[in-house]
Write a structure and sequence with these properties.
Elements: E1 5-8, E2 17-19, E3 25-27, E4 30-41, E5 46-60, E6 66-75, E7 84-85, E8 87-88, E9 92-93, E10 106-110, E11 117-121, E12 125-140, E13 151-164, E14 169-171, E15 191-193, E16 199-201, E17 226-228, E18 239-242, H1 248-256, H2 261-266, E19 287-289, E20 294-296, H3 309-318, H4 326-334, H5 410-413, E21 428-432, H6 437-440, E22 483-486, E23 517-518, E24 522-524
Parallel strand pairs: 21-23
Antiparallel strand pairs: 1-2, 1-13, 3-4, 4-5, 5-12, 6-7, 6-11, 6-13, 8-12, 9-10, 10-11, 13-18, 14-15, 16-17, 18-24, 19-20, 21-22
Length: 528
């Protein structure tokens, strides 16, 4: 989501020119409005961004909390628009140059790389709605290539996040799910990840770490020996995870922000290597046209589909996030509790497929009317909602967070232990695998908002440790080796693939843009 304002940075300190446009936007429960550019300091190349923010169902408990991740971009209004990610001036909690505005019960946290801010409750409690006016963040405009002479636009982009705390957890479910992690050839206990040290995987009889393979291409064999290095994010250390899967609205905003038409075309979900249509297909409503390419969606809250590994990583690089590992997937789903054989992300083996959607257009307020439904799977042909339009509207992804309501619990909301939504079902999610060397070489670097500009490779992620990086690094991420899938999707006829520990496709490094594939990102926590 974003809100745009125009301003001119001038050499003359006493003169500021603002060309204002008024716009309010929201996605799920997150709402940004009234962005303006306030005091600036040409001596330090900084300007204050002021805005209003609100989101629903915030919490801060002894276990974890939610937050909003905000990134700030400037552009010069060129066509296509080059929205450049800019750094914040100082890091830490409520750093110099920041303000929580009218709400003193929240705080601003800026990570060490200063590429965005987390806004969260400052103390224990919960709020049905958090709102604050006149929040302020000071942006270093020189960090994104601008000077005081440039006329630019400012954009604020927000994502709801969930904090996953540091701590031990289990990966595996007693060999119930396909290729689940075991402690030995005669020991089906789950892996116990008790620290962030290197993990030695071999073929012990018991009380160790044994890899179980599903024999995907280039996947390690069952009982193979290898080491998962200490700099691989194994889930023990704290991180933030996107509460929801990437939505169509977020995807469209990302594509429309890219600086060249070639970059936009490479990330166009309607082109021949994706859904190959501007029409609705499998409930995906994204359409793109024109030169420069401009994309739109009629269902911005619906989970985005047809995402390749290369697409997902481009989005995460742009958003200053990173891909999750399959061990982090199990941590954010299961939490610190003992595994349950065959459990889903909400911690039980109970599951009911959605079948009926409330009457009317799906405008972000639609609900599932199927009694006890908590997952989108079974390749259901929906009734109600957009499904009443027939054809390609009847089977596919639902809006993110659709099972959660004002009185829902973890099971009925389809929520994980930590409150992450739709980890079981809806769209299958791409993650870094431990099942081959390319995945294990991942060290968890964050995106910096800068994508490739190499001819024919525009718009790719650039992190050299991210799986799929090209042999010519300037080309960015062009493949998927080292990636796989977790969590199952709407297309699964059996619920088995929705299990937390199911690894049937965990090392399936496909580059295909499947109609049920999406994803989400995470960010390592570097605070106290």
């Amino acid at each position: 989501m974003n809100i745009n304002k125009r301003f001119v940075l001038l050499l003359i300190i006493l003169v500021e020119i603002f060309i204002l446009t008024v716009s309010n936007v929201h996605a799920n429960n997150l709402f940004l409005s009234n962005v303006s550019l306030e005091s600036r300091d040409p001596a330090s190349d900084t300007v204050v961004v002021e805005f209003d923010l609100s989101w629903n169902n915030a919490w801060y408990t002894k276990i974890n909390h939610d937050a909003v991740w905000l990134t700030f971009r400037l552009d010069n209004g060129a066509s296509p628009t080059d929205k450049r990610l800019c750094a914040i001036t100082f890091s830490g909690v409520n750093p110099v140059g920041s303000s929580t505005g009218t709400n003193t019960a929240i705080e601003v946290y800026v990570p060490n790389d200063k590429l965005g801010v987390f806004v969260r409750l400052a103390d224990f409690g919960s709020e049905a709605q958090v709102s604050s006016q006149n929040l302020q963040v000071t942006v270093d405009y020189a960090s994104c290539g601008f000077t005081e002479n440039d006329q630019v636009e400012a954009t604020v982009f927000g994502l709801e996040m969930v904090f996953v705390p540091q701590g031990a957890f289990y990966a595996g479910d007693f060999d119930t799910s396909a290729a689940a992690f075991n402690q030995g050839s005669s020991d089906t206990d789950a892996w116990y990840i008790s620290n962030s040290a290197a993990i030695s995987v071999a073929n012990p009889s018991s009380n160790g770490y044994r890899y179980v393979s599903n024999n995907n291409t280039n996947e390690a064999a069952t009982g193979a020996s290898f080491t998962i290095d200490s700099d691989f994010p194994n889930g023990y250390d704290a991180f933030y995870a996107m509460k929801y899967e990437i939505t169509e609205g977020q995807w469209v905003e990302f594509v429309n922000s890219l600086p060249t038409d070639a970059a936009r075309s490479n990330r166009d979900l309607t082109n021949g290597s994706h859904k190959n249509s501007d029409a609705v297909k499998s409930r995906n409503t994204v359409s793109c046209s024109g030169t420069p390419t401009v994309c739109s969606t009629s269902r911005p809250y619906r989970a985005a589909t047809y995402l390749t590994w290369m697409d997902l990583l481009a989005f995460l690089d742009w958003a200053a996030l990173r891909p999750m590992t399959e061990l982090e997937f199990e941590k954010m789903a299961r939490g610190a509790v003992l595994p349950v054989a065959g459990e889903f992300a909400w911690g039980t083996t109970d599951i009911t497929a959605a079948a009926a959607i409330s009457v009317g257009d799906e405008d972000g307020t639609e609900t599932i009317t199927t009694a006890s439904a908590n997952a989108n799977y079974n390749n259901t042909v929906f009734t109600g909602g957009d499904a009443d339009n027939g054809g390609e509207h009847t089977q596919g992804a639902l809006r993110s967070g659709i099972f959660a309501g004002s009185v829902s619990n973890k099971v009925s909301a389809g929520a994980s232990y930590y409150g992450v939504m739709e980890l079981s079902g809806n769209v299958i999610e791409r993650a870094v695998t431990v099942g081959n060397a390319s995945g294990r070489s991942f060290t968890g670097t964050h995106g910096d908002g800068v994508l490739t500009t190499t001819s024919s490779f525009e718009g790719n992620a650039t992190n050299s440790d991210w799986p799929g990086i090209d042999a010519t690094p300037a080309n960015g991420v062009t493949g998927a080796d080292g990636s796989g899938f977790r969590g199952g999707a709407f297309s699964e006829v059996s619920s088995n693939r929705l299990r937390v520990s199911d690894r049937y496709d965990a090392a399936n490094a496909s580059t295909v843009a499947f109609n049920d594939a999406g994803g989400r990102g995470v960010r390592t926590y570097d605070g106290n």
